[in-house]
Design goal:
It contains five helices and seven strands; from the N terminus they run βααββαβαβαββ. The chain has about 170 residues and is α+β, with helices and mostly antiparallel strands. Bound molecules: coenzyme A.
């Protein structure tokens, strides 16, 4: 079954294999935006791990524009890294309120259409409950059929379209 696994510093090869599969496109929820010149390199991996550990540490103050966030690898039963998911503890920035929402995710191209995104989102909702959130905002591009169906499969309640994004709420 699909699982949400904390990133592991020991599994560079598994992470890099997954990143390569994306070929630079659609890495939502991976945290890649925080790393200049991001790619499937050891340097990007180490930098990313530093950022993601800092962001998930609720004891640390973060710079403006950042919120605490738990990053996961989406893994399959063979522990292959099949994608990424980021669970933000809040949406207290203009960008997250209007565009980003609470949860970002992506599944590597070679492992799509196998139910991983839907199951990973379901697991993320359990994590959100554990964090004490009462509801979560999910957004996706108007034409992202895969994401629309993923969100709706997990009970997403459509609110409206804002800045080209469909907005959904899920009560927890
Ligand atoms: C969107 C994405 C996460 C879907 O991942 P996935 O693992 O293939 O999705 P699932 O297999 O769990 O499918 C979930 C639902 O979406 C449907 N679906 C998935 N991709 C689809 C596509 N390209 N076209 C139509 N339907 C699609 C599935 O049939 C399923 O629908 P169902 O519940 O009615 O059967 C994946 O395509 C991706 O990573 N895209 C790039 C990044 C991205 O867009 N992330 C979301 C940002 S908001």
């Amino acid at each position: 079954m699909t699982a949400l696994t904390p990133p592991s510093g020991d599994r560079f090869d598994a992470w890099a294999d997954c990143v390569r599969d994306f070929d630079g496109v659609g890495l939502a929820g991976s945290g890649s935006w925080q790393v200049q010149g991001f790619g499937p390199t050891r340097e990007s991996f180490e930098t990313l791990l530093e950022h993601t550990r800092a962001e998930s540490d609720t004891g640390r103050d973060l710079q403006d524009g950042h919120v605490h966030c738990d990053y996961f690898w989406v893994t399959d039963p063979d522990e292959v890294v099949v994608g990424f998911l980021a669970m933000r503890h809040s949406i207290d920035t203009d960008f997250l309120r209007t565009q980003g929402g609470h949860i970002g995710y992506s599944i590597r191209p070679s492992h799509r259409r196998q139910g991983h995104a839907a199951r990973a989102l379901g697991l993320a909702l359990n994590h959100a409950r554990m964090l004490g959130l009462g509801h979560v905002l999910l957004t996706c591009d108007e034409d992202n059929v895969g994401s629309i169906r993923t969100i709706e499969s997990q009970g997403g309640d459509f609110e409206r379209i804002l800045i080209g994004k469909r907005r959904y709420w899920i009560d927890l």
